[in-house]
Amino acid sequence: MSLSIGIVGLPNVGKSTLFNALTKAQNAESANYAFCTIEPNKAVVPVPDSRLEKLAELAKPEKVINTTVEFWDIAGLVAGASKGEGLGNKFLANIRETSAVLHVVRCFEDDDVIHVHEKVDPVRDIQTIETELILADLGVVENRLERVRKQLKGDKKLASTVDACEKLAAHLGEGEPAASFPRDTEAARELLRELRLLTDKSVIYCCNVDEEALGEDNAHVAAVRELAERRGHGCIKVSAKVESELIELDDEEAAEFLHSYGAEESGLGQVIRSGYHTLGLISYFTAGPKEVRAWTVTRGTKAPQAAGVIHTDFERGFIRAEIVSFEQYVAHGSEAACKSAGVMRLEGKEYIVQDGDVIHFLFNV
Question: Which domains, from first to last, does the chain contain?
């Protein structure tokens, strides 16, 4: 599995500029007018992880493979998108399969960059987008409700599904996101799993600021952080303009450049860290002469299921796992040295994989 993120926001808030910077790919045209992104843009980006680099130094593999994060950038949404206004509504289906939503919101003043509402107000902008996402979800639920009502005549077992659809439609109709809908019945849980509603996804607010606000929050950022805390959402702060300037720099130069503005971490690093935390994801590693590789699993995953991320045969034929922590691997310098020192453990089917575990799976084919 990998982290997948859909990028949403009003036109001209810096979405495409940020997408270009995050992916280091100038394939999402950025322009100072609404709806310049008329085709969905997708990019798969390696997740930077210094632990992977350290393991590679020790294991000296033929290749190193990072885990990845997938970004979808869609056209800017506007009020009325759920009824066909603008272009972003056409591409919402592209982010229904993503794990999380990165909601980019403008938190800078610049008379040279137009705002669709003429005045910068990030909280209002967030509410505009979230209303459109709720209305888009409501349309999906109402369509499903219409279908299951017809099917109910021939299959009375669908009564619980109809009930769940009706309650969910009423919930969304009151302006509430699907994430706050009670999951108190199996029918409700199954419905939400099936529909993958936009407002049922984890949300990260991304405050796009100018260079001056990278160090100390301005009033716009403070307002978004307060809203994020109330709603239990993630919140990060980046400057899309600064991020675009980092593209041509090496890691050391980029770190110095960010530090000069009072920032400690790149936008990509913040997005990934916040995404992993929000979704409860961790990384484990495999290390050998052929490759050193990072794998992403959900926190709490047991060893057989973690093995299944590599290949389903590994999960089906799981016998046991040889495990050493990243810290112990680095301290002893190799898998063989870890075995000799007695720090490599044998774990069975009930073992819960930990972040940073270096694992060798044993299985039957």
Answer: 3-47+67-118+201-279 (3.40.50.300), 132-198 (1.10.150.300), 300-363 (3.10.20.30)
